[in-house]
Amino acid sequence: MKNCEYQQIDPRALSVSPLSAQIHTEKKEQRPRRKWEVFPGKNRFFCDGRLILSRHSGVLPLTLGLIVVTCGLFFAFDCPFLVKHLTVFIPVIGGALFVFVVISLLRTSFTDPGILPRATLDEAADLERQIDSSGSSTYRPPPRTKEILINQQMVKLKYCFTCKMFRPPRTSHCSLCDNCVERFDHHCPWVGNCVGKRNYRFFYSFIISLSFLTSFIFGCVIAHITLRSQAGKSLVQAIQESPASVVELVICFFSIWSILGLSGFHTYLVASNLTTNEDIKGSWSGKRGAEESGNPYSYNNIITNCCVTLCGPLPPSLIDRRGFVPPDEVVPAASTASQMELPHFSTKNDVNMCTQSTKDVLERMINSGSQTLCSPGPPKTTPLVQGLPSTAALSPEPPPSAGCSGPLGRRPTDSRCPLFSRSSEKESLHSINPAFRLASPSPSVTRTAKTLGGAADVSFMPLQPGSVGDEAP
Amino acid sequence: MAETHSLQDFQRPAVSSKVFIQRDYSSGTICKFQTKFPSELESRLDKQQFEETIQTLNNLYAEAEKLGGSSYLEGCLACLTAYTVFLCMETHYEKVLKKIARYIRDQNEKIYAPRGLLLTDPIERGLRVVEITIFEDRNIGSAR
């Protein structure tokens, strides 16, 4: 019979399957990465993203070393004598203080200070459009700032060129960490991290407990040496018998001045609901004339201010360090014609964005004129920025890190293509659940995706232009 | 061939545009979003529904950041235990964030998805914006 039992292989099936096989192999090769691995700021992460530290960790080892050495000497050399002659509670109190100090220090150092994740490309483009189109007011404020009214006070919001967004009030961009930090206080080299909204209370408890600890050790060492020299020996003899005490005395003496001063200063800041940054810049004082506190954030009550700053609710981390980066997806076979495939660079932020087809993106670019394609090479500035006088808009900060000069340039990608993924869907769902732990991923997108019959087309955004040239020194 | 069929069957809608609802800082640094109805949604959504969604979100965030007896108690307890209590306990803020995630999921299912819209939880955008994705209306005719 001419009807063959063996059917010829459909050429279309042939053309599809190798590609899908290729796609699947590519998928296998790319293990899902967590967001901390592609975090754009200058931070270091430990324990798979659970702990965060600034890359400029400063003298944190020195701080820890000093505390541990001083306390070690205290427990080894002074405590035996003092327990014998005074009371057993001395090492107990010392031990409790030491534990509290170390825990506070580690908490301050390894907690996210309130880093704001950078704006996605879509958001940045939308903002640029708004800035362009808002020629509504007769008085045109300097570009890249926004004036708002908070508690009858005019507050200027500055545009952050690195993070591509208007900074919320009290937020500042730390040049050392290259992050915008909410309620930015200062970058503390002793602690190796920024001090901001989320870790200010830890920092405060660290310096207060450290003041107590140094004062306590200082007092105990003085008592020790006094008691020794009282027993018929001279001071020099007493010191010779316990040389470690002198070391402790010296360390504590010099620490006490600075630590007590710092504690007092921060107590004042807490009571008036100010940050070091605002105090140094004089944001609310000296400008308002007779008004005692022009601070719009103050509750004008010391106790309320203290409670709010130290005991208020602790917001979660916004950067979702342990979420998964949605893997880069090769476009599905049916739509390859209209897409272009970019080589896989290490992605930067903006990973949770919905992607669009290249055509749409190009159209938008032409309309908004806000972005340029950036090849992995010298970064290009955006056309909008070039014409703007940037001095007024910029606070005196060193220029942010380069965009394209980073690891081979950036490409924010996302995919929610249900075709290829159980796994990629799961990954994008994982990434939806930020700082807090959930037993199961948030199904908000799953269900909606299923309702709509799937998520958006997978495609690639153009590389984000660098921001080096944006800010003039 | 079977694969081609399934591709066509899926008919994934393309993203037409995105609308970003920015933060409203007039009351200070608390998390609050602007309730101004964006013009791009006029064809898809009722102004009232939109305002209700945003207002509920604002109220939920206000509840999360509320200063009161319970939050102070939580803070003091945390301070006394050298903040180690948060290793085993969820903060009040986190609890409310879960509530917000549930609310957004419900809103998407009931109101936004049938209109070809998608609300993104602001926490995924660092509490900067409420992102509303507008999908192409399939009835008009999709690109493919």
Automatic annotation (TrEMBL), chain A:
UniProt GO molecular function? protein-cysteine S-palmitoyltransferase activity
Keyword Cell inner membrane in annotation? no
- Catalytic reactions of this protein: L-cysteinyl-[protein] + hexadecanoyl-CoA = S-hexadecanoyl-L-cysteinyl-[protein] + CoA
Q: Which GO terms describe its cellular component?
A: endoplasmic reticulum; Golgi apparatus; membrane
**PANTHER family attached here?**
PALMITOYLTRANSFERASE ZDHHC18, ZINC FINGER DHHC DOMAIN CONTAINING PROTEIN
Q: Name a Pfam family for this protein.
A: DHHC
- Mind telling me which residue stretches traverse the membrane in this protein? 59-77, 83-106, 202-226, 246-271
Q: What is its EC number?
A: 2.3.1.225
- According to the UniProt record, what class of enzyme is this? transferase
What is the name of the protein in this document?
Palmitoyltransferase
Q: Which UniProt keywords apply?
A: Acyltransferase, Membrane, Transferase, Transmembrane, Transmembrane helix
- Palmitoyltransferase DHHC domain segment(s): 156-281
Gene name in the database record: ZDHHC18
GO BP: protein targeting to membrane
How does it sit in the bilayer? Multi-pass membrane protein
Q: Which InterPro entries match?
A: Palmitoyltrfase_DHHC, PFA4/ZDH16/20/ERF2-like
PROSITE patterns named in the record: DHHC
Q: Where is this region: Disordered?
A: 371-448, 454-473
* Protein family according to the UniProt entry: Belongs to the DHHC palmitoyltransferase family.
Q: What is known of its domains?
A: The DHHC domain is required for palmitoyltransferase activity.
Localization: Membrane
Automatic annotation (TrEMBL), chain B:
| Metal-binding keyword on record | no
Q: Which GO terms describe its cellular component?
A: Golgi membrane; Golgi stack; palmitoyltransferase complex
One GO BP: protein targeting to membrane
Subcellular location(s): the record lists:
Golgi apparatus membrane
Topology relative to the lipid bilayer, per the entry, is: Lipid-anchor
Its main subcellular localisation, reduced to a broad class, is Golgi
Membership in a protein family: Belongs to the ERF4 family.
Q: What is this protein called?
A: Golgin subfamily A member 7
The protein's organism comes out as Oryzias sinensis (Chinese medaka)
